[in-house]
Design goal:
This protein is mainly alpha-helical. It starts with 10 loop residues before the first helix and ends with a helix. It is built from five helices and no strands. It is globular. Helix content is about 70%, strand content about 0%.
Length: about 130
């Protein structure tokens, strides 16, 4: 790794971030297709839970705290819901994945400021 006081400024860190960012794009596309094509009772919780758990853990590491918070909120809600996913859990998953896909496409890093708080509040209201 390059000798820098801030490891996130090294070329190796940026390469790792770019690799993660590309992997997440593929995962989000696959998950969104699975959720949008699912009917109540046809999609196992694990289909979404595992990738979202990984995203919740790694997003903040690479500077995508808002994405991580959305993923964390989704997995916490999924834990309390039906498996396979029922109508409500499918709706929650669709809303969260739509937000994640849009924010990822815009490469929104950090907490997202006031808009990030508004997004989290809106998604929380859907989880309730």
């Amino acid at each position: 790794m390059s000798a820098s006081t801030d490891p996130t400024q090294s070329p190796e860190w940026e390469a790792a971030r770019l690799e993660w960012y590309a992997q997440i794009q593929t995962q989000l596309d696959q998950l969104q297709k699975a959720v949008n094509g699912a009917t109540p009772g046809s999609l196992a919780l694990e289909t979404i839970y595992g990738p979202m758990h990984d995203m919740a853990g790694l997003a903040g590491v690479f500077g995508y705290e808002l994405l991580g918070k959305i993923a964390r909120g989704l997995i916490e809600t999924l834990r309390k819901g039906a498996n396979p996913l029922d109508d409500k859990m499918l709706m929650v998953a669709k809303a969260n994945l739509a937000a994640l896909v849009a924010l990822h496409a815009k490469d929104v890093r950090g907490e997202g400021g006031p808009q990030g708080l508004a997004i989290l509040a809106k998604l929380a209201s859907i989880h309730a």
